[in-house]
TrEMBL record:
Active-site residues, Swiss-Prot/TrEMBL: 316
Keywords for this protein: Amino-acid biosynthesis, Aromatic amino acid biosynthesis, Cytoplasm, Transferase
GO molecular function: 3-phosphoshikimate 1-carboxyvinyltransferase activity
Single biological process term from Gene Ontology: amino acid biosynthetic process
The UniProt record lists the keyword tRNA processing: no
Annotated organism of origin: Lentibacillus populi
One family name in Pfam for this protein: EPSP_synthase
Catalysed reaction equations from the record: 3-phosphoshikimate + phosphoenolpyruvate = 5-O-(1-carboxyvinyl)-3-phosphoshikimate + phosphate
Binding site for phosphoenolpyruvate: 23, 95, 123, 170, 347, 389
Designated name of the protein: 3-phosphoshikimate 1-carboxyvinyltransferase
Domain of life where this protein originates: Bacteria
GO CC, any one term: cytoplasm
Quaternary structure (record): Monomer.
Amino acid sequence: MGVKELEPSHKPLSGVVEVPGDKSISHRSVIFGAISSGVTTVRNFLDGEDCLRTVAIFQALGVTIEKTNTTLIIRGRGMDSLSEPVEPLYFGNSGTTARLMIGLLSGLPFFTTVYGDPSLTKRPMDRVLIPAKQMGTVFDGRENGNYLPLAIRGGRLKGISYTLPVKSAQVKSAVLLAGLLAEGTTEVIEQTRTRDHTENMLQAFGADVKQHGGVISITGNQKLQATDIYVPGDISSASFFFAAASIVPGSELTIKNVGLNETRTGILDVLQRMGGAVEIRNEQITGGETIGDVTIAYSKLNSIIIEGDLIPRLIDEIPIIALLATQAEGTTIIRDAEELRYKETDRIAAVMEVLSLLGADIEATKDGMVIHGKTTLHGGNVRSFHDHRIAMMAAIASLIATDHVILDDDSSIAVSYPGFFTDLEKALHR
Ligand SMILES: O=C(O)C1=C[C@@H](OP(=O)(O)O)[C@@H](O)[C@H](O)C1
Ligand SMILES: C=C(OP(=O)(O)O)C(=O)O
């Protein structure tokens, strides 16, 4: 890992690829397995750095978790078995670990200190602290507790009714996890639907969770029962292959066992609206989550407008969608996506820098970007900003570039997709 010289390929992608397990679902499988009673076996767990942080945290809280390749065996003994960790808990680069764990730790009757890497230390935490404080947790940290490191004194929570001020599944999940430990009922109201893996998994672990429209409610002090989980392939990881097959002439590639939960399939809607050749086969439901095989072929793309309720359904795919837009005829507009500025890096600024350096005609706006296509991409030296999704976008851009793309550092890719280059080589038959 380190500097990566990416050769232009122009070779079509073909055959079958299976991407690793979904990051959001993998995190949640560990959390719910660890707080329930009994043995939970998780298959196709994402062996990426972010999810491994979540595993290490529960081990530090006293839970026995055994891992063999992508299978986890979690020996849960219920919420009461979790014990105060002696050392500070490290969230690494993982926003999901941070937000969901802060929610859970808020409700546990002990003291914890938590911290992250330099990127996570810049990301806002007040979005989860505000509801947790309303429920009764005491926090301390920089800038009124908005940034890591944080000290958390948890326990004795009261249920609240909370309307999400940001369209965030992490915040929704944090409040629901705190609600599991609170007295009475906790209600989360979301105006725009965000990914619902927490709700699905609560149900799978036998919790009483109710959903009416955008209102999700949970009663506190429930006991969860262990269950087995199969983690579907991560559609966010698959999106790099969807994009590659769409823009490299002659490609036709199948990605098997991809999670197709409709709160996550915005990328497929976008590709279809752009004129992409998308086919879905073998759809089935496992553990409350839809999975299927997706075949994508090269096609001529047109520009579209991406906004509103669609944004949370493809929030992590916007960097790769921006690359697709450089290959579409006309002007693509992405708006209502200011949240991109609070990810592993400011993804609006990062996408803008990388793609314009490679020759794209792109403007950044406050809450998105405007991309004029179609443009030929050339080579160049680009930065990853230590952001896995920016690094993978640059790697896919290199497939159609006229010269080498030199990426300063590809190590961040291990956060969500450690085998990315191996799978890419396989699809290119190199
Ligand atoms: O809940 C989750 O697993 C996630 C929610 C999203 O973040 P927000 O909730 O901040 O939008 C997404 O960007 C992140 O990669 C994973
Ligand atoms: C934003 C992401 O993750 P997290 O918030 O968990 O760091 C991501 O994976 O793109």
